[in-house]
Amino acid sequence: MNTLSRLWRLSTGRFGLIAVAVIGITAIASLFWTPFDPRSVDIAARWGMPGWPHLLGTDGTGRDILSLLMVGARTTILVAVGAGLVATAVGILLAALGALTPRWTREAVAVLIDILIAFPVLLIAMMISSVWGGSLWVVVWSVGIGFGVSIARVTRPELRRVRGSDYVLAGQASGLTALQNLRTHLLPNVAPVFIVQLSWSMAVAVLAEAGLSYLGFGASVTSPSWGLLLAELQQYLQIHPLSVVWPGLAITLTVLALNLLGDALREATDPTLRGRDAAPHGPRAIPHTTPGVVA
């Protein structure tokens, strides 16, 4: 049974897969079609209640909220995937340097990781954005590097633990280079821990983009973003509270789906957790009994 089948058997995996697929399909569909032009302003239709033809209502300028959410999904996908790729590259590089190099290099990398991890990711992103200006690429790189350091801190001890295993030593004895050993033996064995950290980083990247855009340090005003939409609608919360629900709900469901998908992937790929599926179930299971002590 492959990983996808095991993932689908888990309720958290099904929810995560379906939610992420819906968001991805929505982002792709918005490239070709939206119910209304998200940039179209219709003052006569402003603050429309959910119904037909505006299924989720309209904002203060008459723009269709559903169309804005569909276009904003593209930003969410870009930030999550981009920050995930950057975090993966930074995390693997630092973890490998901190676990597989000579002692003085390992100690220097460990100190560097401890220094970098002391700075909050959002603070770093705000500082960079204040210098280079708010843009999605600044958010992607700052969040990706920040969480790459966090991934390296968790993955490095796992790499050092696996490094002393018999199959790794056998690979070295057979002539495998350090890079080949890393790709063949080390990374697959730390993959469950890495996957959880990566999914969590992608989820927080979505939150970071929304928060930075809300504060004015993220996406520019011309870029579609759920955080920008939430910031625009928040000032009318007391008058039209329902309009704020939709972007907030989209952000919440996305973050929840990524977290649950990461947990399910860990359970589907970790051999120690998969072993539980092979245990007998149901009335035919043989109960495990411990013999009593004979006096």
What does this structure look like?
One of its GO terms (cellular component) is plasma membrane. The protein is mainly α and 295 residues long. The protein has a single domain (3-43, 62-272), classed as MetI-like fold, CATH 1.10.3720. The chain has 11 helices and no strands. The protein has helices at residues 3-9, 11-29, 65-100, 103-116, 121-132, 136-163, 166-173, 178-215, 226-234, 241-269, 271-274. α7 (166-173) packs across α8. The longest helix has 38 residues, at 178-215.
Summarize this structure briefly.
The protein has 295 residues and is mainly α.
Q: Return residue spans where pLDDT drops below 50 for at least 5 consecutive residues.
A: 277-295
Distance between the termini: 48 Å
Could you estimate the helical fraction of the residues in percent? Answer: 55-70%
**CATH class descriptor:** Mainly Alpha
**Into how many domains do the coordinates divide?**
1
CATH homologous superfamily designation: MetI-like
Q: What is the count of helical runs?
A: 11
Total strand segments: 0
